Amino acid sequence: MTTHHESIGHAGELFARWPVTFDPPTRRIVDPPQPVIVSVSHALPGSPRTSLRDGTPLRVRAEGLSVDIKVQGTLSAWARLANGAWLARVDFSVPTGNGKGHLDLHGQWVPSDAITPMR
After folding, report:
1. b vs e for 56-90, b when ≥16 Cβ sit within 10 Å of the residue's Cβ?
2. Looking at residue 61, what DSSP letter applies?
3. Cα R_g (the chain), whole angstroms
4. How far does the chain reach from its first CA to its final CA, in angstroms?
């Protein structure tokens, strides 16, 4: 059985159930994968842009995931939505507020405005 991580470089596997007949295609693999900066607050659904002074308990701020940050990531694919917007498939890690832990996200689909190319 092939895992998500193993299929990243295989366009046939990643997009196997998405036939494309038009040119340019509405999806593509980025090969080799490219480094990007990920705005976590734009990337994760339901991560409101609120202040840390909103009454959130200290224990949650310490051990919850930091969302008001930008982290390095790797772009591996693009997919176009029916409304014309693009989604980017990225791998990135989100640290906890106290920096003692993190959550690794692999193959996360995020809005295109959540990433910026690294130069």
Report:
1. eeeeeeeeeebbeebbebbbbbbbbeeeeeebbbb
2. H
3. 16
4. 36
The structure tokens 């994760």 sit at 44
Instruction: Give the pLDDT of residue 48.
Output: 64
Q: Please check whether residue 78 is in contact with residue 87, taking contact to mean a CB–CB distance below 8 angstroms.
A: yes
The widest CA-to-CA distance across the chain, in whole angstroms, is 53
Q: What is the pTM of this model?
A: 0.83
CB of 109 within 8 A of CB of 115?
no
* Residue that is written with structure tokens 């591996």 in the block: 76
Q: What are 50-95's pLDDT values in tens digits?
A: 555 678 899 999 999 999 999 999 999 999 999 999 999 999 999 9
Residue 104, SS3 per DSSP: strand
Helix (H, G, I), strand (E, B) or coil at 39: strand
